[in-house]
Amino acid sequence: MNQDEILKLFTDSGALLKGHFKLTSGRHSDVYYEKFTLLKNPTLATKLCKTMADLLVPAGAETVVGPTTGGIIIAYDVARYLGVESIYAEPGETGRVFKRGFSLRPGQKVVIVDDVLTTGRSIFEVIDLVKSYDAEIVGIGELLDRAGGKVKFDYPYFPLTSVDADSWEPQNCPLCAKGEPLTQRGSRKF
Ligand SMILES: [Zn+2]
Description:
The chain has 190 residues and is of the alpha/beta class. It is built from six helices and ten strands; from the N terminus they run αββααβαβββαβββαβ. It has helices spanning 3-12, 35-39, 42-56, 70-82, 121-132, 174-177, and strands spanning 16-22, 28-33, 63-67, 85-91, 96-97, 109-117, 136-145, 157-162, 167-168, 183-184. The strands form two sheets. Strands 5-4-3-6-7-8 form a six-stranded mixed sheet, with helices on both faces. Strands 9-2-1-10 form a four-stranded mixed sheet. α5 (121-132) links the parallel β6 (109-117) and β7 (136-145). α3 crosses α4 (70-82). The longest helix has 15 residues, at 42-56. It is globular and about 50 Å long. The termini are far apart. The structure holds zinc ion (ZN). Zinc ion (ZN) binds at residues 20, 28, 170, 173, 175-176, 182.
């Protein structure tokens, strides 16, 4: 699938919403990707995961790691295509932790995958977690980069598609200035 086809999948599935949203990061935006509208449809989601897996094959990962919650679905299906294992990084007291007996050994080749990137916070947390095991990060895959490539990683980065969606700190939000009612989206507690 090419970038346009992937973006069309988000739009056609109803996963792209327009309005005035508080994002997981706390920033405000006029677009929101309700990724679970797409991820709840395995037939569509697996097409994206296949595309991501194809991009990640050369990285030679032994394990796919995804942050909860959407990242679990992506990691599982990408790992299925790659023929490797998938594990999940869950919220800890600070940052991310492995539970359920999950672990990595030093030097283990890992790709990190997630669904929608806004600030990259989840991915940075997983990077810290993987590094704490001295495992080797060989790639990062993202279904949709809504930061338009502005978030940089020190590892090979494979966003399936990239859009430069505006978002603002609440005090600078033009929609707040217009008094537009705010909808809170995203999974983090505030
Ligand atoms: Zn606002």
